[in-house]
Amino acid sequence: MCWAAGRGSWGLCRLLGAQLGLVKFAAQRPHYEEGISHLRRAFPHWSKNAARCIMRRTVQNSAMCFFETARLRTASTQEVRDYAQINGLENYETQRDRGHGVILAAAHFGNLEMGGVRLAQEMALTAISLPVGCPKTQQMLEEMRRNAGIYVLHPTRSARTIIDALSRGEAVALFGDHNSRQKDLTVPFFGYPRHVISSPAHLSYLTGAALIPHFAVRRTPWLSDGSFDIQLRPALLATSANARQTHIVEKTLGFHTELENLLRLCPDQWYGWNLLRHSWQIESSHLSQS
């Protein structure tokens, strides 16, 4: 199927992914029960069946993304441009012209790889990414990113390399929605405290680079359309550029506010529902930002 998707249309990728997602959800249904419970916590007015339907769609979207990524290895520049349109490029260009580079804070949402390839057509892009567990999938990702001109760094690589890229006015993309078991920072998430990383905001503070949330949102209906709206949101602001903790807290909170607002519109495109066990507290409604 991966071979067929790599040589077929975007529509074929979505069709194959939709079918594979149904099979995967049915075969591993107990694995997704925790994600279903998290959805019901975020949307308490939903029935369990409604939450199950959304969870099933997240699995289908993930499978669609896999086949689309296989297709990206051979897709032309114009094919990608037609399938994924950027909205908010002026937000990036305004901050780029300040000369400090731009940090793109991404989420595990929509199709990350599609967003990266499309953005790399408009800017010099460095992505901070861990390798995936499957060697063949990792090989596919490396080939696709290399063809797109995306420079990939492991998170443990020297911070100097990242700072140098920003000092050249380039864009650096990294995840902003990772959980933090070390309780790095706590922000409200659908009314409950969630432990999250603060590294994007911390990097923004250290370098003076703007922090811009970006999301690759799949358009509906998925099978008849399913193309992408690559959203570059306005740069996140802090009330004090010099107060380190205020800067980090406010920008981290700003990113997660953007994410939560998007999830209220498109809850079926986020991969994180099943991964909140250690980071999303439910025993207390007290929200701390320290």
Description:
The protein has 290 residues and is an alpha/beta fold. It has one domain (2-275). It contains eleven helices and nine strands. The chain has helices spanning 2-7, 10-27, 33-42, 48-72, 77-83, 89-96, 112-120, 135-148, 159-167, 199-207, 244-265, and strands at 84-87, 102-106, 125-128, 151-153, 171-175, 185-189, 192-196, 210-218, 228-232. Strands 1-9-8-2-5-3-4 form a seven-stranded mixed β-sheet, sandwiched between helices. A two-stranded antiparallel sheet has the order 6-7. Helix 4 (48-72) packs parallel to helix 7 and helix 10 crosses helix 11 (244-265). Residues 284-290 have low confidence and may be disordered.
Spell out the blueprint of helices and strands.
Layout: H1 2-7, H2 10-27, H3 33-42, H4 48-72, H5 77-83, E1 84-87, H6 89-96, E2 102-106, H7 112-120, E3 125-128, H8 135-148, E4 151-153, H9 159-167, E5 171-175, E6 185-189, E7 192-196, H10 199-207, E8 210-218, E9 228-232, H11 244-265
Helix pairs in contact: 2-4, 3-4, 4-7, 7-8, 10-11
